[in-house]
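User: For a reading group we're discussing how well predicted structures match intuition. Take MFS transporter. Before you show the prediction, I'll give you the sequence so everyone sees exactly what went in.
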Amino acid sequence: MPKTNSAPPLALTAESPVLAPRYREPASVPAPRRTRPPASGGRQRPGPRTGSRGTLASYRRLFATPGTRAFTAGNLVARVPMGMFSVSAVIMIAAEYDSYALAGAVTATGLAATALVAPFTARLVDRYGQARIAVPATALAVLGSLALLLCVHLHAPAWTLFAAYAATATTPNTGGMSRARWAHLHRDDPAALHTANAFEQAVDELCFMIGPVLAAFLCAALFPEAGTLTGAVLLLTGVLLFAAQRATEPPPAPRGGGAGSPLRTPGMPALMVVFLATGAVFGSMEVVTLAYVDGPAAGPLLALQAAGSCAAGLVYGSVTVPGGDVRRRLLGCLAAMTALMALPLLSAAGTGSLLALGGALLIAGMATAPTMVTGMTLVQRLTPPGQLNEGMTLAVTALLGGIAAGSATGGWTAEHAGAAAGYTVPVAAAALALVLAAAAGGTTKARLP
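Assistant: Thanks. Here is the predicted 3D structure of MFS transporter, as structure tokens, for the group to look at:
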């Protein structure tokens, strides 16, 4: 699940933070022997895959494609810092300036800058290629992180912190670039692509479980700047390793697919509003849980929610999903999310037990990955060919906007109506996302292939 006040899970991971492509290029990448059945009419209909053996077999087949393990390893290294940067910045700034308000304002500025810059960076990636754009964009973002570290260490004026952290907005959507590679490799195999999308969403959840814990440990065990420094090194190293895998890189679309922004595509604006409401679920749930627990147990409880989403994503990727209307599948996922998000509310208002709340969060998290996988599948089907990174980055930006709004609303509700009552906000946000998705159905369905 995307995290509050963090750089995008360039991802979430929007990412997870997830695709069923509409690519029309010739199928130039042959399927490796025994990894995919031969194409039949351009669509595959694999048999059911259930149980732990079926789950493992699905992912073994996925990574049997040459080059996939190498680019996945590099991308994983690059994505772990996405869960580190905001936590590291808050700890580092608060320790030096003795102001959590300043630390929060700086990270919020970075979030706003990313929302503006990330779609433009993604458009360049689509137009000129991943390696050509991602490496210099990452280098600039790393310089911003190092500048922030230096400013804090020297106790520079507060305005320099805002300027330095805003420079990190050029960080490319690493999760989106990885999903684009899967889409290119499996553009004629929806079953393999579904597995890849679910895997990517599970990776998003994993990174946002590990990242904050690693950042907090480094800052406490070494020195306050250690989290930011380590994150910058991991980001640059991971992107360099990822960009070096040229054999699996999608070909650039020199004119951006021959179209303007993907937001001009019928159905996309309405779907972005759905993502905005979905992001509010994530942001409010995190803040309300922190307010309700108000102690060190809050971290493990939130990790349980991410763990539930990660496990559900892996299972969801190993089963055969129903064909046909993806929009209806999204409605089903949002309905399940609305119902499951009520469990933490019932637990907090009822027993008040942290053990019961942990179980409720674990179960509630299981709706996250399937919803994100299905939603991003719809994003890709609506996105014109050659603009895939931009389309997914717009979805991540909408999620981040929703996270910010949900965090503010959840925090206000918890403060004025009580922390237990604050759990009504994620339920209401999920219900709103469901209503918006149902209302947007006509336009979206008309645009789908």
